[in-house]
Amino acid sequence: MPAELTGRLLHLAESSEDLPCVGDWVCVRYRDSATRASIHGVLPRRSFLRRKVAGRDVEVQMIAANIDVAFIVEACRFDFNLRRLERYW
Question: Which of 9, 13, 69, 74 gives a 20 to 30 Å CA spacing to 40?
Fold first, then answer.
């Protein structure tokens, strides 16, 4: 279902880690006869997978939350990039 973050949630987020990502459980309020929703909060994460953003910045990029098992696979032929693989560590 399409949902939008509320302004309060966006304002209180200190970084991108505080915003919802794939796998998060969120608190929503339905509107427009249950065809759209507003996200009011993110429930605590049990686990998460994140990586450093490319470049020299010390920021992280959330990939998924509340996961049990994750496999990181990268081709070893044409597009192999060791630096990209290290960012998942």
Answer: 69
Number of domains the chain contains: 1
Contacts of 8 by beta carbon, 8 Å cutoff, 6+ apart: 40
Residues 57-75: what's their mean pLDDT? 84
Q: What is the pLDDT of residues 16-56, one digit of tens each?
A: 888 999 999 999 998 877 788 899 999 999 999 888 877 78
Q: For residue 9, how many other CB atoms are within 10 A of its CB?
A: 19
In terms of residue numbers, what domain contains 52?
Answer: 3-86
